[in-house]
Specification:
It is a single chain. It is built from 16 helices and 31 strands. It is of the alpha+beta class. It has 3 domains: 273 residues, 2-Layer Sandwich (BirA Bifunctional Protein, domain 2), CATH 3.30.930.10; 128 residues, YbaK/aminoacyl-tRNA synthetase-associated domain (YbaK protein, Alpha-Beta Complex); 104 residues, 3-Layer(aba) Sandwich (Rossmann fold), CATH 3.40.50. Strands 3, 7, 8, 9, 10, 11, 12, 21 and 24 form a 9-stranded mixed sheet that branches. Bound molecules: adenosine-5'-triphosphate (ATP) and magnesium ion. Adenosine-5'-triphosphate binds next to strand 8, strand 21, strand 24 and helix 12.
Length: 558
């Protein structure tokens, strides 16, 4: 990933171990900028900052049930007293424990607390530097309300705060409907920075505001069709034809007339999934339907062990394992499917008559040919990087941990919770992914490590050096963030490095100062260059900086 390469080349980060990085001064300065914007907007929305321990006792996680559920991403260790602990990947347990010990009445609500902290997740595939680290910086916030309605208002407040945060960071992003994952909860939204290299695929309506993560995206259901007469089932030889394309070509039918039978292992238990020939399984939807911690497609050997049928010829008729099917299969009749015998398929198969399905659900991946579930408009698939995630948690944690308060009737009630994460270190990487050219980074002004890089092109020339140092001091005095490059290097090296580290404004003091008494100001983003006299320089810089900061009034929170 380009952001990873650039951060290494530009000296923003250094790798210590897989997924574990040191943040060097420039990298840290950019991270601090993001943190500051996050702080200001969280505070503005009524949240309060605290800092929770990173080491968490196992007992709390056992209480919530996540000690088992979280899996190998949770880094567990034993201390000298043989007590089990973990390094916090997230803090629902700790914050809920804190609140249950200290908050007892509805009069103290709502409460909204957040922290900015290093998290540890033992990711299976750490990669792309800060994009998916094992150790990374996150802002995590948690809210506690007395009622669902109040929790809904808090969630909306956080939604608006997030819109402001990512706008102020100068990022192009989109908020999308998302799956809630291991954290649980009933509803969630992800904030995606748009970038072709993003790991997530998002589905966006070309017509209305519908946007969703692929894991959650729905399509408008195809129209109901009148069921035709059910024809008698027929077995037909399909020698060596195993794949959808080969079978449908051989049978001279379209993939829409074929149902494929796929075997998955859900926490080790086999399940057959039926899908229209031209559709693909969305595994997170399947996982949610089955309530499984992990689903994985069975390999050829596992399929054979479980069903006695070689892959490619499998079908649900007289199949002994659980069968679930995608909603679109419900609308099909007289379809083709594997005959559970090598080199054979069956034609005119029908659900209900020939076999039973234990559950129908939306299990498929949406495609660009689908229609929007809200307005019927066309859909577009694009890529994004998840930088934030907000959840309505409801009472799942407060009930599990028995965290209650007394309501205005004196009744004990569980807190209604929400949680809100931002990948702070990932946001910096995402910003670079979105803003770079062949010469290096082009950081948005609000999160650049400094606003101006000042090049002294001739450190041996006293006049030039004096002018550069004068400008440097004046910048500092007038609140312009500046980094001076007064290394004993050739101008070409300094220009190259200034481009690489992506500082939005380059200020150069060199030969034209000796000759004409002017310095050069250049915008990293547009390449626009002009000269200025010493006395007007800082004023010009201030104007440029102001015009590139995201103004309050331009933020259009939805
Ligand atoms: P992902 O799907 O990318 O693994 P997640 O759903 O596990 O993310 P959350 O638990 O919602 O992430 O964490 C909140 C935020 O923390 C994410 O939106 C993301 O920006 C950031 N984040 C999560 N995992 C990592 C990681 N390994 N490295 C850097 N940032 C991360
Ligand atoms: Mg994750």
């Amino acid at each position: 990933m380009i952001s990873h390469q650039l951060m290494l080349r530009a000296g923003f980060i250094r790798k210590l171990a897989s997924g574990i990085y040191s943040y060097l001064p420039l990298g840290l300065a950019a991270i601090r900028k993001v943190e500051q914007i996050v702080r200001e907007e969280m505070n503005r929305a009524g949240a309060q900052e605290l800092l929770l321990p990173m080491v968490q006792p196992a007992e709390l996680w056992q209480e919530s049930g996540r000690w088992q559920k979280y899996g190998p991403e949770l880094l567990r260790f034993t201390d000298r007293h043989q007590r089990e602990n973990c390094l916090g990947p997230t803090h629902e347990e700790v914050i809920t424990d804190l609140v249950r010990m200290n908050v007892h009445s509805y009069r103290e609500l709502p409460i909204n607390l957040y922290q900015i902290q290093t998290k540890f997740r033992d990711e299976i595939r750490p990669r792309f530097g800060l994009m998916r680290g094992r150790e990374f910086i996150m802002k995590d916030g948690y809210s506690f309300d007395a009622t669902d309605e109040a929790a809904g208002e808090t969630y909306e407040k956080m939604n608006r705060a997030y819109q402001r945060i990512f706008s102020r960071c100068g990022l192009k992003f989109r908020a999308v409907e998302a799956d809630s994952g291991t954290i649980g909860g009933s509803f969630s939204r992800e904030f995606m920075v748009l970038a072709d290299t993003g790991e997530d695929t998002i589905v966006v309506c070309k017509n209305c505001s519908y946007a969703a993560n692929m894991e959650k995206a729905r399509a408008m259901e195809s129209p109901a069709v009148e069921t035709p007469d059910l024809l008698p089932m027929e077995k037909i030889e399909t020698p060596g034809k195993r794949k959808v394309k080969a079978v449908t070509e051989f049978l001279n039918i379209s993939a829409k007339e074929l149902v494929k039978t796929l075997v998955y292992l859900a926490d080790g238990k086999p399940v057959a999934v039926l899908m229209r020939g031209d559709h693909e399984v969305q595994e997170v939807k399947l996982q949610n339907l089955l309530g499984a911690l992990e689903v994985e497609m069975a390999d050829d050997k596992q399929v054979f062990d479980v069903t006695g049928v070689p892959t490619g010829y499998l079908g649900p008729v007289s199949l002994e394992i659980k069968v679930v099917a995608d909603l679109e299969v419900m609308k099909m009749s007289n379809f083709a499917i594997g005959a559970n015998e090598k080199n054979f398929h069956s034609l005119n198969v029908n659900v209900g008559r020939d076999f039973e399905v234990s559950e129908f659900a939306d299990l498929r991946m949406v495609t660009a040919d689908d229609r929007c579930p809200s307005c019927g408009g066309g859909l577009k698939l694009t890529r994004g990087i998840e930088v934030g995630h907000i959840f309505k948690l409801g009472t799942s944690y407060s009930e599990a941990l028995n965290a209650t308060f007394l309501d205005n009737q004196g009744q004990e009630q569980p807190f209604v919770m929400g949680c809100y994460g931002i990948g702070v270190s990932r946001s910096v990487a995402a910003a670079i992914e979105q803003n770079h050219d062949k010469d290096g980074m082009i950081l948005p002004m609000p999160i650049a490590p400094v606003q101006v890089v000042l090049l002294n092109l001739s450190t041996k020339d006293e006049e030039i050096t004096q002018a550069a140092e004068g400008l440097y001091k004046e910048c500092l005095a007038r609140g312009v963030e500046v980094l001076m490059d007064d290394r004993d290097e050739r101008p070409g090296v300094k220009f190259k490095d200034a481009d690489l580290i992506g500082i939005p404004i380059r200020l150069t003091v060199g030969r034209s100062f000796s000759k004409d008494g002017v310095v050069e100001i250049r915008s990293r983003r547009t390449g626009e260059t002009f000269t200025a006299s010493l006395s007007e320089t800082v004023e010009r810089l201030k104007k440029m900086i102001d015009s590139e900061m995201v103004a309050d009034s331009s933020i259009n929170s939805q």
